[in-house]
Amino acid sequence: MSANEVIVHDDADILAAACAARLVTRLADAQAARGSASVVLTGGGTGIAILEQLRRSPARDAIDWSRLDVYWGDERFVPADDDERNEKQAREALLDHVGVDPARVHPMAPSDGEFGDDPDAASAAYAGILAANAGQDGGDVPTFDVLLLGIGGEGHVASIFPASQAASEDRRRVVAVRDSPKPPPTRISLTFPAIRAAAEVWLVTTGEAKADAVALALAGASEVRLPAAGAKGRSRTLWLLDRAAAGKLGSLTGSASQ
Ligand SMILES: O=C(O)[C@H](O)[C@@H](O)[C@H](O)[C@H](O)COP(=O)(O)O
C-alpha cells in the first residue's frame, strides 16, 4: 500500500477547486489509457463542494462522462427523496448536469427501495454490484481510479466510525451500520478491504475541527481507533487539506508533501 502524501491549500474554496481540477486530470488520463474510468464519491460538505466546483469548471468536459462509473463510499439509509441522501446531493451538485450514463451510476439503495428497510440486504446487494463490475480487475471490487473520502472530527471515513464493527471488518466489502454517532443512525458503508482496492484514495477535509483527527491519523494511529488512518490506495494515498485542517501537523503545516 502507498505512503501518505499531504497537500495543503490555503482555504476550503481553493481546496475544492484544486481537487476538482485534479479529478479532471486523473479521470481523463484513465480514460485515455483504458477507455473508461471510475470514481467513488463521498458525502459531507467538502466532498459536495468539490462536485460543485467540478460542475462549474470549463475543464469538466475533458472527462467523457458517458464512460465513467460512479460509486459511493457510503450512504445514509433514508428514503430516496430525502435531502440527507449522499446520492441526491451528488446528483444536484454535479451528476444531473453532465452526461453520465445512468447505467454506470451505482448508488446504494435507499430505505424505501427494493430492499425495503433492510440495510443488510441493501449492503449485500451493493457488494454484488461491486463484484459484477470488478471485471478483469480480479477480486470482488473494481480497482477504482479515485476513491474520495471526507473525514469526521473523530476520524471516521465513509461510515466507518471509531471502534465500530465496520472498522474491524476484514471480509465483507460492504456493511450496514446501525447507531452511527453521526446522524442519520443507519447507513451503508464500504469497508477497508473495498477502500484499499482503489488505485488512489484521496482524503479531503477542511476546517479546524478536523485538525486533531488529521494529525493523529498521519502520526500512525490505529485504524480501529481512527479509521482515516486505515484508508490507503494501492498506488497513491493523498491527503488534500486546507490550512485549518492541517493546523496540527506541526512542522508539516504548509508543506507540499510528507
Ligand atoms: O455520509 C456521510 O456523512 C459522509 O460520507 C461522511 O463520512 C463525511 O464525509 C464526513 O463526515 C465529513 O463530512 P464533512 O465534510 O461535512 O465534515
UniProtKB/TrEMBL annotation:
What EC number(s) is this enzyme filed under? 3.1.1.31
Enumerate the spans annotated as Glucosamine/galactosamine-6-phosphate isomerase domain.
11-239
Question: Which superkingdom?
Answer: Bacteria
Enzyme's top EC category:
hydrolase
Pfam families attached to this UniProt entry: Glucosamine_iso (PF01182)
Q: What's in the keyword line of the UniProt record?
A: Hydrolase
Identify a single GO molecular function assigned to this protein: 6-phosphogluconolactonase activity
Q: Which reaction does it catalyse?
A: 6-phospho-D-glucono-1,5-lactone + H2O = 6-phospho-D-gluconate + H(+)
Task: Name a single GO biological process.
Answer: pentose-phosphate shunt
The pathway entry for this protein reads as: Carbohydrate degradation; pentose phosphate pathway; D-ribulose 5-phosphate from D-glucose 6-phosphate (oxidative stage): step 2/3
Name the family: Belongs to the glucosamine/galactosamine-6-phosphate isomerase family. 6-phosphogluconolactonase subfamily.
Q: What does this protein do?
A: Hydrolysis of 6-phosphogluconolactone to 6-phosphogluconate.
Please give the NCBIfam families that the UniProt record associates with this protein.
pgl (TIGR01198)
Question: Which protein is depicted?
Answer: 6-phosphogluconolactonase
Which gene holds the coding sequence for this protein?
pgl
